[in-house]
Amino acid sequence: MTQQQTAGGDVRLTGISKTYGSFTAVHPLDLTVPEGSFFALLGASGCGKTTTLRMIAGLEEATTGTVSLGGRDITGLPPYKRPVNTVFQSYALFPHLDVSENIAFGLRRRGIKSVKKQVGEMLDLVQLGDFAHRKPHQLSGGQQQRVAVARALINHPQVLLLDEPLGALDLKLRRQMQLELKRIQTEVGITFVHVTHDQEEAMTMADTVAVMNGGRVEQLGAPADLYENPRSTFVANFLGTSNLIGGEIVSTGGEIVVEAGGGKLTLPSERCQAPATTGGRLLLGIRPEKISLAHADDADAIAAGRNRVTGRVVDSSFIGVSTQYVVESPAGKTLQVYEQNVDRREGLLPGSEVVLHWNPAHTFGLDADQDIDAGAASVEDAA
Ligand SMILES: Nc1ncnc2c1ncn2[C@@H]1O[C@H](COP(=O)(O)OP(=O)(O)O)[C@@H](O)[C@H]1O
Ligand SMILES: [Mg+2]
Predict the structure, then answer these.
(1) Maximum alpha-carbon separation in the chain
(2) Is the dihedral of CA 22, 24, 25, 30 positive or negative?
(3) pLDDT tens sequence across 121-166
(4) Which of 145, 174, 216, 281 places its Cα 20 to 30 Å from the Cα of 359?
(5) Closest Cα to atom 11, ligand 1: which residue?
(6) Would the pLDDT of 7 be above 60?
(7) Ligand 1 atom closest to Cα of 164?
(8) Strand pairing of 243-251 and 23-33?
(9) Residue of 18, 22, 42, 50 to mutate, ligand 1, most atoms within 8 A of C-beta
(10) Whether 338 contacts 322, CB under 8 Å
(11) Secondary structure (DSSP) of 196-209
(12) E-assigned strand segments in the chain
């Protein structure tokens, strides 16, 4: 099904902020959500996601700044005059109405009598054709959520706002609904702005993710770009897991060489997000799945040119697709290594002396004047 889009356009936030008394929930924010994109606002609880969303919806008055849609300033418009609909975590369907009538609600309210065709299209879109005459309490959580989405989309909003809409679902259902919502968005082509604290959810669904921290957007980009090129320790730790190793810069050029943990590690200078001068400090980042492990006895077999640090396995967990190791190393704190379960080899037992090695190209560099643990503690999954 294709939607007729009349006056499409980007959502543009300019200098938008929100203060409650002396507390700033959202610092002045500039953000453009391209028309037709699936955009995620990602961050820990309390970082200002809902407030930002509510300012787009008009449910919260901005302290400063403007919201525009397709070039039109809508800052002064009340919620019901904005071409925007919101789906909340508590989707509050009308319990006495069946699925069809819940979906038809927005049309009925506008006095539209012949709703059958449009409701039918929506039922198809969210694949609930067989459930048209059920009441909400006769549906699963995921089905109720799809009714809520259909109920919003039937109004043909230019933008659909979703505030943790999958938060109440169990993990498996949430994964299914993520793919389902993505499919629906692709099909209708409407701009979706999705708020979540779940980084996997944001990465699975969104074209663009804005990582928020303390009322500010810390970094914005495509999921793979954020993951591979975090610009701060917060993003490196909040989005997946990063090993961060502090060291001193011994030379610069096409490659930066850093002394850390008694050895030398290199990274391509274009992957360094901080000014690099000889004698200065740097944090080197490496993702756990990019590291290989060798027994210390087999260290001679490691190809030349790889970054390597020594360590001792302190913990290992077999989780099916991979084995996750925790390794103590003179390079700093404990390091995480994920080894894909491709060839069954005997796991490395805790106590094993190992060498961790990886392609220097996978190393990223961050400013050392940051909290090395920023973002790490706030990763909690509400599953
Ligand atoms: N009406 C309000 N009055 C005072 N503080 C508020 C109000 N609404 C939200 N806040 C505060 O603003 C911050 C951001 O809230 P919110 O946008 O709901 O965060 P998130 O959705 O990311 O969890 C939080 O610290 C919250 O306590
Ligand atoms: Mg919220």
Answers:
(1) 78
(2) positive
(3) 999 999 999 999 999 999 998 899 999 999 999 999 999 999 999 9
(4) 281
(5) 25
(6) no
(7) 21
(8) unpaired
(9) 50
(10) yes
(11) ES-HHHHHHH-SEE
(12) 11-20, 23-33, 38-42, 64-69, 72-73, 84-87, 159-163, 191-196, 208-213, 216-221, 243-251, 255-260, 263-268, 281-286, 292-295, 307-318, 322-329, 332-340, 353-358, 364-367
- C-alpha 331 chain-centroid distance: 29
Cα 246 to middle of ligand 1, angstroms: 35
What pTM was computed for the model? Answer: 0.90
Q: Measuring CA to CA, how many Å separate 375 from each of 47, 236, 237?
A: 12, 8, 5
For ligand 2, the distance from its centroid to the CA atom of residue 50, given in whole angstroms, is 4
How does pLDDT run across 263-281, given as a tens digit for each residue? Answer: 999 999 999 999 999 999 9
Tokens of 188: 């209708």
Pocket of ligand 1 (CB under 6 A): 20, 23, 25, 43, 45-51
Q: Strands across the sheet with 255-260, in order?
A: 263-268, 255-260, 243-251, 281-286, 364-367
Residue 283 structure tokens: 């944090």
Atom of ligand 1 nearest to the CA of 53: 17
C-alpha 55 to ligand 2 mean position (Å): 13
The tokens for 318 are 């077999």
Atom of ligand 1 nearest to the CA of 18: 12
Strands 11-20 and 84-87, bridge-based pairing: unpaired
Q: What are phi and psi of 22, to 5 degrees?
A: -95, 0
Question: What tokens were used for 19?
Answer: 């203060």
CA of 222 to the centre of ligand 1 (A): 26
Residue 163 Cα to ligand 2 midpoint, Å, equals 7
The residue whose CA has the least distance to atom 3 of ligand 1 is 20
